[in-house]
Amino acid sequence: MTAEELQSLIATGLPCEQCTLEGDGRHWYATIVSAAFEGKRLIQRHQQVYATLGGRMQTDEVHALSMKTYTPAEWAAKA
């Protein structure tokens, strides 16, 4: 899977203001900014992202996904 394909899957299932990915085709590192994360705990945010991938984590199409998730306000505060 390419970074573009993975980014498309995430963006299709989750409205993202920003979604950047780095990786080697199996191990991915994502930074995702979405208003959908408002009021959600970290585990809930990650579950939202995993839901966009469907069964691709179980089939090893995406072996590992490390992510940093932010609301737009949290992202703006980082800048």
Question: How would you explain this protein's 3D organization?
Answer:
With 79 residues, the protein is α+β, with helices and mostly antiparallel strands. The protein has a single domain (3-78), classed as 2-Layer Sandwich (GMP Synthetase, Chain A, domain 3). It contains three helices and three strands. The chain has helices spanning 3-13, 42-52, 72-78; strands at 18-23, 27-33, 64-70. The protein has a three-stranded mixed sheet with strand order 1-2-3. Helix 2 (42-52) links the parallel strand 2 and strand 3. The chain is globular and about 35 Å long.
Strand order of the largest sheet: 1-2-3
Number of helices: 3
The general outline is globular
In whole angstroms, the N-to-C terminal distance is: 31 Å
Mean of pLDDT: 92
Beta strands, count = 3
Question: What summary fits the major beta sheet?
Answer: 3 strands, mixed
Radius of gyration: 12 Å
Helix and strand composition category: alpha+beta
Low-confidence stretches: none
